[in-house]
Design a protein that fits this description.
Radius of gyration: 19 Å
Helix content: over 70%
Number of strands: 0
Order of helices and strands: HHHHHHHHHHHHH
Structural class: mainly alpha
């Protein structure tokens, strides 16, 4: 039974990472259908929220929150809006596979922020991971032909990684005594409402998906990189632990790169490969260092 649970956990971790990595597949296809960024994200979050709401209805889970929980959930909502919006905007400015790889610096940012602001001693592993990830980002920024990525796109992805790192820290440090379904119910509601407001303020009206194919890709974004990834991540962490789950999460940017290269004809080069390897190595150092510290406590 133990071996079976471990196998299920590994398969779930792989599945969750691959599902997360399919974000560009849905987003770029919807952009090709003529939909703008706030519309893509509004329908993604809106449909995912409806699914979560139905699940909570069947679970008969209360929606009641106190003031402290409301403030925390509001902060999480704004952070997730910022992370998602900046990432999807970056897809207009740079290859989606590269953007997803740079986004994967968020575990390194998380470790650095915790070390700096929560009185944790800065470990050599943290410093090494920061250096490796920075070198990796620089390699991704400077192309083999001497050209560079769009600076605005790189800044957007780094902001996305930073806000997601802050999201993780808030979840970790705040005493939210509720299920992940309840957390995501409120976060997804904020995200859908935030996209509607952003569409209004930016002069980009919300657009209905124009074709059945567009509805298919919207549903894909709501179900695969959102709901399915969330559910499988929970089982992976439960059956094999957070450390192996985080390491297998390296398949997320790998999936995005493969989709970009083979589906959207995005360029692939030795420099891109080296940048990916360095960023993944930095994340692995952080995860393994955290695991060793946990075991020593």
């Amino acid at each position: 039974m133990g071996r079976s649970r471990k196998l299920i956990g590994i398969l779930c971790a792989i599945g969750a990472a691959v599902c997360y990595g399919t974000n560009p597949l849905g987003a770029l296809n919807l952009y090709a259908e003529g939909m703008n960024t706030p519309s893509v994200l509004f329908y993604r979050f809106g449909l995912a929220w409806i699914i979560i709401a139905v699940v909570m209805l069947f679970r008969k889970e209360s929606l009641k929150v106190d003031r402290r929980e409301f403030r925390t959930l509001t902060a999480l909502g704004f952070l997730f809006i910022g992370s998602s919006l900046t990432l999807y905007l970056s897809f207009h400015l740079m290859p989606a596979g590269v953007a997803s790889t740079i986004l994967f610096t968020y575990p390194v940012m998380t470790a650095a922020i915790i070390a700096l602001f929560f009185r944790e001693k800065i470990k050599f592993a943290t410093v090494a991971s920061i250096v490796l990830s920075l070198v990796g980002v620089v390699l991704l920024y400077w192309g083999d032909s001497g050209g560079t990525l769009h600076l605005g796109g790189v800044i957007l992805v780094l902001v996305s990684a930073l806000t997601y790192a802050l999201y993780i820290i808030v979840v970790d440090k705040s005493p939210l005594a509720m299920s992940s379904f309840k957390i995501n119910f409120y976060v997804l509601f904020y995200c859908a409402a935030g996209m509607a407001l952003f569409a209004l303020l930016s002069g980009q009206p919300l657009m209905l998906p124009p074709t059945p194919r567009a509805w298919l890709w919207v549903s894909w974004l709501a179900v695969v990189p959102a709901i399915m990834a969330l559910v499988m991540m929970v089982y992976a962490a439960k059956y094999i632990g957070s450390t192996p789950t985080a390491i297998l999460g390296a398949l997320e940017p790998t999936t995005a790169v493969l989709i970009g290269v083979f589906v959207f004809d995005e360029p692939f080069s030795v420099r891109l490969l080296m940048g990916i390897i360095l960023i993944l190595a930095a994340v692995t150092i952080v995860v393994l260092g955290k695991a060793r510290r946990t075991q020593s406590v």
